[in-house]
Structures
1.
Amino acid sequence: MMDDGMKSHEQLKLWIEEKKDFPDKKIPILFRNSIPEIPSTTYGTFAIYKYPAKFIPQVIAFVLKRYAKRGMKIFDPFAGYGTVGIVSRIYGYEYELWDLNPIIDVIHETATMKPPRINVVDLVEELKNSKREFIPKWSNLNYWFPEEFIPILSKAWGFVHSLNDEIKYILLIPLINVTRYFSYGDEKVHKLYKSKYSKRKIEELLKKDWKRIFYTMLEKEVYNLLRKIIEYNYLRPKEVKYRIRSGIDTLETKLDYEVNILITSPPYLQAQEYIRSTKLELFWLGYDENYIRNLSKKEIPYRSVDRMEIHSEKYYEFRDRIEEPHLRMLYDRYFHAILNVFASLGEKVANYMCIFVGPAKIRTIPIPIDDIIIEHLQSLGWKHEVTFIDTIVSRVMFESKINPASGERDGRIKTEHLVILKKE
Ligand SMILES: C[S@@+](CC[C@H](N)C(=O)[O-])C[C@H]1O[C@@H](n2cnc3c(N)ncnc32)[C@H](O)[C@@H]1O
């Protein structure tokens, strides 16, 4: 899209000032190249666990460097992996994170650790010899794991659940990753899904010395995590105040104090079903079936929501083009939910709302989610500063094909949009 890849932050700032007068205030950018101190999207602890639709850290760093001032409070009401918190620490900002998915607690605790002094070999040995057991309260357990693996998993999880110091967090994510590998779930896709590949994977494992493979893999994962924690600490994260509210429904929660900048990426229109994707992890972490089912019921955009008046012509224009009633219902639920959240939480946001949205289509119709958010929030007194348009790398590699007729790259390059709104 553009070659801003090597611009320094100062150059980028000037360049953005020049382009701010674009008629529609849309500015192309490559976030992943905009923050020299964070050299890659998977640097440090920014990718120790595969959470669907995760922010790349550079987006948050960009917002903080450009809009935040000393002493400001940063808030993400759909925090997912918690990237907003992990980045806020680097720049020394206090933060608050909310998410329906309780896995955020584990990721956050692990990702923000100081490098611990431990002997990995001794630790894995201790885990191997532990007598404690843990079996998740999951009626489908035997569907997802061959019975041969249950004792080894039960022992490892029993040991980890018995810990209550930082060592617990050195083991949790590595054990989650290994548990996923030892399940019939296909660890290559986000959803918990039994594929041909994953069934074969288990058949092959069962033929091998899988106990040795299990512990070797765990050890490797722990070493890898330790390396990532050290890398994150090179960025000199600060001790800042923070609060995490996990397992909560953002639609029904109010902010009890003022924040300065809200940065978030709301759930997708064709949603990911985050709870379903992380179900296996949640069961092993000790949540029960009822609790997990109740979380699923609250996910946007599948749950019903109170109606509100939407002040956006584009919202109605695109709504009219959707013919199937069930898709129209999804569209309505989605916008009523997210606009409600932004309107009501926005009352407690003193300076900026920065909302990151990905591409969305209903059937073949691309939905301009960003423009609809802007129109509605403008009617509530927010000023649209600018929209940054980023190109999605992985999708581009797979999806943008050369058109054989013209020999040119076809126009389906996917973009993600970061909308910046300022309180007037
Ligand atoms: C696009 S993801 C956010 C990803 C995040 N930016 C990150 O870096 O990982 C949207 C999040 O909204 C959460 N979510 C969905 N419905 C919710 C609700 N009713 N209340 C709170 N969070 C919800 C999902 O669990 C998911 O983590």
2.
Amino acid sequence: MPITHSPASDRKYWDEALETQSRADWDALKLRLLQAHLAHAYAHSPYYRASFDAAGVHPEQVRSLADIRRFPFIDKKILRDRQIAVPPFGDLVAVPERDIVYISASSGSTGVPTASPFTAGDFADWIDYEARQFWSSGLRPEDRYCHSLNFSLFVGGPCVLGAQKLGALSIHAGTVPSERLLAIAGQFGATAIWTTPSYAWYLGETAIKEGIDPKKDLSIRRIFVAGEPGGSIPETRQRIEALWGASVYDYYGLSDIFGACAGMCEEKHGLHWAEDHILVEVLDPESGEPVAEGERGELVLTTLKKSARPMIRFRTGDIVSFTGEPCACGRTAQRMLGTHGRLDDMLIIKGVNIFPSDVEAIARKDRELTGEYRLVVERENHLDILTVEVERAAADASQDAALAERFAGHLKSVTGISARVTILPPDALPRATHKAKRVEDRRSGVWG
Ligand SMILES: [Zn+2]
């Protein structure tokens, strides 16, 4: 039956029985789904059949969720190689092409774009749980939701249909110039918007430059962000919240699986996973062993229902941590505390691992800085030298030495790394309108 009227706004959960079930029930559900999904992959995908056979594993051997660890990993390179070998979608696909109704594709910034196919059932499942995630973040049928993500093959595009499904007025704005986006948000009285964290900030600053006070002149009270580690950093969210007078909710998705696979509830402490769709592992990138709660590891994902192209143990390259504590919202789905960065972004300086997000948290906390930052890594006399460039908020340069000393002290206490700190005037660093590039690693001679 199609939904012809919106659900009551005072309903706390989208699907209470599912969302508040015990951890034991979650595990039992996931095991059932995993067994069926692996059997589907083995029966219908030539790649998985060959790969499981080569590893000496069979879906029928799966008796517990931990048994997933006997199965081989896949990664972006395998997706790309198989897609080239068996065009157009590769032989990880496990349905006839006539059943595929939608594809998303990665941006291709790191190579050939990989296409992610969906059946009509996969697509409907995805939109339903998007609605569930939005509901958990407090979006309601009374909201006017402005979706300003790219629609061109980008998996973030159709997420707007989740807002529409829960009954919110959904404004399909797409990626338009900021002045136009501000005009759309103003004209339709948008109460919620989705962008990247750096763009949310840029948009707020642009509004102020145009004489619009985001807090008073616009009605946006919820901002959904994804695509950068910034959304996981409380200091960054708080800065955006102060600029807009709005609540910021971090979401996580990836082009090769789904849009938002995990999102923040109204407690805003960690992102709940859609565990009926995704089996989550957080592993030490070197040993492949699970990391302890609170520790950082690589996120490895296995789909549980997506029939068009099952993803079994996909190494995302994202470094995350998770918490096992119960959430005050009453939802029992696992939470990750956030994404710290890409494995590729991790800098090793004098043998210490550091992510740009570690520096960001410090830059955003100091209200005498604008919060913009850049890391420059060089090698002098065989030693790694980290220089952090930040901007002072005031025009006056008289406090620069004290600001630099304070910043260096915070950085040293948080990361253990000593850095040179350069204080720049406001607006000296380039503003990002999409994904921010914040590291220049000059050690290899290549500006990364
Ligand atoms: Zn929660």
